[in-house]
Description:
The structure is a homodimer. The first copy, chain A, is an alpha/beta fold.
Amino acid sequence: MSAPSLSTRQLTAFVTLAQERSFTRAAAACHLSQPAFSALIRSLEDSLQARLFDRDTRSVQLTAEGRLFEPSARQLLGDFAAAVGDLHDHVQRRKGRVHVAALPSLAAGWLPAIFREFRATWPGIELGLSDILSDGCIDLVRSGKADFALASAGTGVAGLSTELLCADRFWLVCRADHPLATAKQPSLKALARYPLIHLSRNSSVRQALDAALHPIQAHSVLEVDQLATVMGMVEAGLGISIIPALTLFHFERDTLVRRPLAAPGLTRRIYVVRRSDSSLSVAAQTLHDLIVQRMTAARLQPAAARSLA
Amino acid sequence: MSAPSLSTRQLTAFVTLAQERSFTRAAAACHLSQPAFSALIRSLEDSLQARLFDRDTRSVQLTAEGRLFEPSARQLLGDFAAAVGDLHDHVQRRKGRVHVAALPSLAAGWLPAIFREFRATWPGIELGLSDILSDGCIDLVRSGKADFALASAGTGVAGLSTELLCADRFWLVCRADHPLATAKQPSLKALARYPLIHLSRNSSVRQALDAALHPIQAHSVLEVDQLATVMGMVEAGLGISIIPALTLFHFERDTLVRRPLAAPGLTRRIYVVRRSDSSLSVAAQTLHDLIVQRMTAARLQPAAARSLA
DNA sequence: CACACTTACGATATTCGTAAGGATT
DNA sequence: AATCCTTACGAATATCGTAAGTGTG
């Protein structure tokens, strides 16, 4: 009743012998001595409890049972090769799928170049990106829909592990004709006097900013949801804004200036968040490593240089 | 590129571990010590060149690659079991098909009881019977459409082997009111004076009879194709006939008498004919053996007793 | 007697189970 | 400390290749 132990070697030997109709030739084709090959066929027949070949000294022929089994054996070997081949394709990153969840501020400005590079290197890997707020990112990772997330929160959630990706410094953005435009590194105190355009409170950028500014009372004039809107408002002269370096690309216009703030602790921390109970797939690990590597490389250069590149 | 050697033991170990998520429990389920089981999983991972499990001391989880491979592994094991099970069904005669070619004179009278017995013992085996003349029987065997034949010819045909099944003695049949009806064992000479109903010359019965009678010139009155017609003609009083013992059932009527001929060499020989290059399937061999066995048993009794049974 | 498969046999590899090791809770 | 997987290692098993055996045309 219990399934006998069979190996692909036995099946390969079987179909080779069925095709060659000669132990000597089939043994050579399998890189075995003829007696060893003979024993291999015998072991298969013993396992199956069925005589598969009529071997006369003069001819080797499949028995009726052997003829019955041959198509199955070929099919099984083919399925085997397909399954193993598919696995190899994934391990060698010719196939696969990676889904990343990332804050919108990262998804628009910083990730595209990474994705382009990844896609050029591994064209067979499908990419997915959920550009949503931090809580949504965490949920996607926890539920397994995303391989990992680039988000601000995530520390202390059971089953997830976090790794600091970068501390994203805050920058001032204002109109080129604004009084602050002349300061190379404006101080926080200097900013406090001017109307500030905020992102809404459920944004991770805003949360990080509030936490960083904490003792200081900002002069808030407007809250919006999208960084692109912040840019429009600033350009229209409604106020200034404070935004992380990685979102500066929204503000790269001649009418605006961007200045790193003098307070070095004024950062939002971005983490790589992933499930702690399961390793990343080969493809996901590759993308993860690329993200970390490119981020590390970027930090070695002045942030301004990158944002203006 | 070359396919790695995998065994069903490895696949079974894999799916067991994937299900149990514990080396200790999975090893027990596979009747192996835990270290041996661990080595088995390792050997599979080495063969596939892919890590299939994340094993922490506290938890065992499939990797992304393992999750990819699991359905394939289950499918492969299922296909394996199905193929082996099907083979076993055939070897153990729960499934199969046997096709016999047999002379019409055997197919109608002697074979039905054999087939009934075979079918009662092996209800899963499909039976096929071609009740045709000897040449057609030989062709079916040579082409592989029939497993073996019960026929008169077949000796000396390349690629076929023949085995004598029986020497079928010729009997006289005549009306009960015929002069010959009183003789217990009429001689050939006595018969020669009466009109004889013949089968047509392409019948093996006729050929055997002609060969056996050779020096004697029979007094032929009529040739027909079917033994049933011979019976009708004899019963109608057109003549007598000489037919093999195994066809006597056609003539079992009160109006007729049947007498064994005094010439013991007057027989038609019936052979089992089969391909010499290939053994019989298990099912065909079983039917073959049954046929030989029942024929041998029948020969130990008086032929008359059988024909009248 | 030549050819092809099987058997015999010593050598090498693999696989096993027991026991010790290491890491985590 | 307890649990679970891995490593270590000697023993049992399996498999290999060479060489001799066997049977058939």
